[in-house]
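2 proteins. here.
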Amino acid sequence: MSKKNGVPDRNFEFVEQHSWRKGEGKIVLETGAIGACTGIATFSRATKTGHLLHEPLVESTGDLDNFFKSVVESAGDPKKIKVWVRGAAFDSNANDYDYHYNEHVEAARQLVEEKIAELGLAKKQIDIEWAGEDESIDMSIDCHNGKFSEETTTYTVEEDF
């Protein structure tokens, strides 16, 4: 693998909201602005395959089922899968526009945790850190070495408008 300034060559692929991608080799999957959305990154050490999902308020299992089906099929050995979950931030201003918004966020968190539990992974394979109130997260997974990266920022309604 060639290097530029000591950094391995990588191809970056952005994962849009409402979607997920699978990557291998020199691919780095990245997504951003995960606030109330859920971000899930996975990596298989056995096959050097990564997945990244960016889904707003997960309320149905369709996309999660398809995502995790691909993760398991690509992994080779489920014992070598690592899963990172971020996002699903509560909104401090939710009562101003939707009294049930934070209830939907909590339901999304529970659904994601249930789906991950169905995979039967060991606790050490799972890293769930739900976002704090009004936080937004950018995240990436390097599909060559499994390096997971994240950057968290806190936002306010005034800053967004």
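next one coming up
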Amino acid sequence: MYKHDLNHEPGFYSDDKFGIRIENCVIVINKSSKYGYYNEEWLTFEQLTMVPIQRKLIDRSLLTNDEVCI
């Protein structure tokens, strides 16, 4: 079984102004799928960080349509 832990750290930094980062700890694990080819296994992320992100604090008017994901 494959297991590897890492940090997923998407962020935004504005030169000489500010930066913001949302950090999640994840582990990479094996995962089978009903769509697998010849029963091969795939890799997926399992969340280790159990602190929820308050999405109501995100100002969606500042995002493009491509950046908004529900």
